[in-house]
Amino acid sequence: MLQDIMRVISTAISIYMLIIFIRIVMTWVQGASYGRAMDVLSRITDPFLNIFRGLRFLQIGYMDFSPIAAIISLSIVSNITTQIAYAGTVTLGKVLAFTLSAVASAFFFFLTLFLILTVIRVLGIFLGANSTGRFWITLDRILQPLTFRLLERFGRSESLTYPQALMAFAVALLVVIVLGRYLAGIAIGALGNLPI
Length: 196
What we know:
Elements (H helix, E strand, L loop, with lengths): L1 H27 L7 H18 L5 E2 L2 E2 L1 H22 L4 H35 L7 H20 L8 H31 L4
Antiparallel strand pairs: 1-2
Helix pairs in contact: 1-2, 1-3, 2-3, 3-4, 4-5, 4-6, 5-6
C-alpha cells in the first residue's frame, strides 16, 4: 500500500517538475504572449517558486538560480519517494546520497556551463570578435563579476587583464569540475552504503 502511494507521489512530482520547467522556458522568450496558458502555469508554479525567489543568495548578478533550487528540491523528494516505492524502505544514508547527488549534479552542470561560456568568450577575444555586440556584452555581464570575485579571493585580480582573468577562471573551473566530480562520486557512494 505504501509503495503504491509513493509511486503516485513520485509520478506527481515528476509531472510538476516538468510543468515548472515549461514555465521557466516560456519566460526565456522576451515579448512572447502566451495568454491564458501562462496564467494557468503561473498559478500552478509560482507559489512553490516564490519560496525560493525569496532567498537572496540564489541571485548572483543577472543570474537567478531560484528555479534551479526549486527543481533540485523536488528532485530530491522524487528520488526518496521512488526509492520507497521500489525498495519499500529508505535509509538516512540513501537520503543523504540523493541530496548530495542532486546538488552536485546541478552544481557541476552550472560550472560546466560557465566553463563553456568562458571558453567562448576567450575565443571571441583572441579571434578579434567585435566586443560591442550584444552577445559579447551579455557574456561579459555574466562572466566579469564571477571571474573577478573568484580571483579576488586569491589576491590576483588587480594584476591580470580581462583575457588573462578569463583564462585563469577557466582553468580554476576545470580543476574544480574534475576534482569535485571525483570527490562527490566517492562521497555519494559512501553515503549510499551507510546501513542506517
